Amino acid sequence: MAKEKSSEKKVTKDRRSVNIIDTTLRNGEQAAGVVFSKHEKIRIAKMLDEIGIPEIEIGTPTLGPLEREIIKEIVSSKPSAKLFTYCEAFPENIAFAVECGVRNVIINISTSELHIKVKYGKTRTWVLNQLRETMSEARHNNLNFIVSAEDATRTDLEFLLKVLNVAERKGATRFRICDTVSKLDPFRTFLLLNTIINTTNFPIEVYNHNDFGMATANAMAAIRAGAKSLVTSVNGIGEGTGNAALEEIVMALKYLEDIDLGINTAKFREISEYVAKASARAIPVWKAIVGTNVFAHESGIHADGVLKNPRNYEVFEPGEVGLTRQLVVGKHSGSHTILHKFKEFGIDLTINEANDILSMARAMAVDLKRPLFEKELIYIYNEYLEKKKIDEEEEVEV
Amino acid sequence: MRGLDILTEFSMKAGEKLEPKNIKIDDTTLRDGEQTAGVVFANEEKIHIAKMLDRIGVHQIEAGIPTMGGDEKEAIKAISALNLSCSILGWNRAVVSDIDDSVECGVDAVAVSISASDIHIEQKLRKSREWVLESVRTAVDYAKKFNLYVSVNAEDASRADMEFLLQFARTSKEVGADRLRYCDTLGILDPFETFMRVRTIIDIIGIDIEMHTHNDFGMAIANAIAGIKAGATYVNTTINGLGERAGNASFEEFVMALKYLEGVDLGIDTHLFRNLSEYIATASGRFIPAWKPVVGANLFVYESEIRASTVMKEPKTFELFRPEDVGLERKIIIGKNSGVNTLIQKLKSLGLKIGQKEAEELSESIREKALAFKRALFDSEIIEAYNSYMKSSPEKSKIKKREG
């Protein structure tokens, strides 16, 4: 509301379409200690497809026969999403993708000096040749391919542009910039992406890590700079701190950048829960967008504000991401919450009664070091009534 | 720089050198952190946390809300009485009686908080803009009589009309406030809007700005950084990002982002990070996710073949800082994504030898196990797999004995 009034001061936002390629099943599973079973991978692919994710990375065929079997099964389920597998840039890896029946591959190669030296023990020339040969092999097999530049954000810009140029000329469909060690903040992201996009005009995709908690913000900065595609994972699951979280990206695009991708976000909590269980990584209650606490209000000021109008403290309705609103009674609660809670129980309190019950509830919450259950509120109420009765009787006696 | 396209200006700020002396941390773990639905600290915990924050090097501690009374007030009094080297701030509504409670607690600084957006003014406070400005005047004026450092908190500043927000800032400055806290109460800014709004306030009004950001869209840290780039000098953080709903800007992430991405070292003792995070996690009953930026237990744990073998050669290939910098350890684990080289290394670290060809066979059986168990393997399971593999062929067993 008030925000619109100052719209003349807002940064201009290009309305553009953004592609999402989800890597829960590839880099998500690469998180140390995470293993999805075959059934889980198939289920996750199905869920992502159903909510309208346009592209999905489903695995790394070179990992072995077990992985390939799972990939084949996902392919045979014929989802409407475009399916990709992932490989390092070695020509012989392409055969494994072909064996799995996928039509799209991501060809990954490190481009930074440090990686070329330590990871490969090779030179830039070797990197370019390796990439060319792998791309030729992919073309030979009629595969579409994205070229992924690992550690791109620590790569000499001139060389990065050269790699991009080679990729473009050999028929890549997109070029992926990987911020492998989270070297970028939104300012650097914007500058780098803007420079690349102004130089080449080739479709760019960004792949962010969350080492300093900026994966989502960097993705938004990339979109402002003209990137066409973002790599996400459910709950942000991935190696180390993980990737940009699918649910954060979709909601930030919608509510902060005015780009609605038409994804069925009401399923977000359900998918997050499923991936959390399958990966044995609980969803923190405070997880942005899908945490159960995101729509829980305890403090007097916030709860009171929400009761008057949810928009006071909420940007969108909890149902939009599959959550529900809760009012929690605890140390920081105010009398309005008490009034509201008891009304829900069918009890109309006076303001004085609410204040008395509030101080009892607060003391109990401090003592228990947690908020109160609804039952405990009723116990307090009964205690309060008894006490009041005794007080009144005493008064009569006097 | 004025007059430039905002996006050009934004990109000019990439990599710009910032001055450490201009950036201060006001930690609100004890106030907004505890205000989180479901979180309650015991008073002794609050005192312990305050001591830890002081020792680690924060500049100001937001200790709580004095006007809540009871235990809360006692805790704030006790913290003020510690005579720590950092400043102690009490949170207040823009109400005179609240400030009396703060004064009684012995704090040296107060936050005076009131909403700046029309939606809050009309629908929460049910008052007018003029009433808001008058409340600011009265409260700041009153606090200044006690020689307190005063931060005026513009709640919901992100949805406030910019003209009114400027008026709000000007009023605060005129009446003697020391700084303005820009509260992105709902976490709805991206770094571009943050940068522009904060820069506008600083340019036009010229008042110290503190960033109070929320993580509802995962942008709390990025927005705090954007505020600093625009000229803000204080950042309101919490340990582990504890705070209402999706939480606030996490202290440890912000400090490390400043140090490793922006080149600003605040002189905070980062070695204590994991320790501090664990304490807050226990006291708040909220676990530290293994993947939590900066302090998660899994950050320096490697499983996939390429990463594990590369990082063993040179940690800088995948790490911007060392695990010991934040009180963590580097570790290699064996699971579904592990390869032969990692396995050989792991066995070696367990004092076991294996040939290349044998490792390849063993590696496949280990992958099957990881898939069956749906997790990485414990060292004892790796040893067991090794022993049973060696036993399966008498010849390999002989080699093992001879080598052993």
Short note summarizing the structure:
Chain A has 398 residues and is an alpha/beta fold. Helices cover 47% and strands 12% of the residues of chain A. An eight-stranded parallel β-barrel of chain A has the order 1-2-3-4-5-6-7-8, surrounded by six helices. In chain A, strands 9-10 form a two-stranded parallel ribbon.
CATH architecture of the largest domain in chain B: Alpha-Beta Barrel
Gap between N and C termini of chain B, in Å? 71 Å
Name the CATH superfamily assignment of the largest domain in chain B: Aldolase class I
**Quantity of strands of chain A, as a count:** 10
Q: Quote the CATH topology of the largest domain in chain B.
A: TIM Barrel
| Cα shape of chain B | elongated
Helix count from the secondary structure assignment of chain B: 17
CATH class annotation of the largest domain in chain A: Alpha Beta
Model regions low in confidence, pLDDT < 50 over at least 5 residues of chain B = none
The run of helices and strands of chain B is: HEHHEHEHEHHEHEHEHEEHHEHEHHHH
Structural class of chain A: alpha/beta
Q: Mind summarizing the main beta sheet of chain A?
A: 8 strands, parallel, barrel
Give helix and strand order of chain A, one letter per element, not per position.
HEHHEHEHEHHEHEHEHEHHEHEHHH
Percent of residues in helices of chain B: 40-55%
* Relative strand content of chain B: 5-15%
Q: How large a portion of the residues of chain A is in β-strands, by DSSP E?
A: 5-15%
Total individual domains of chain B: 2
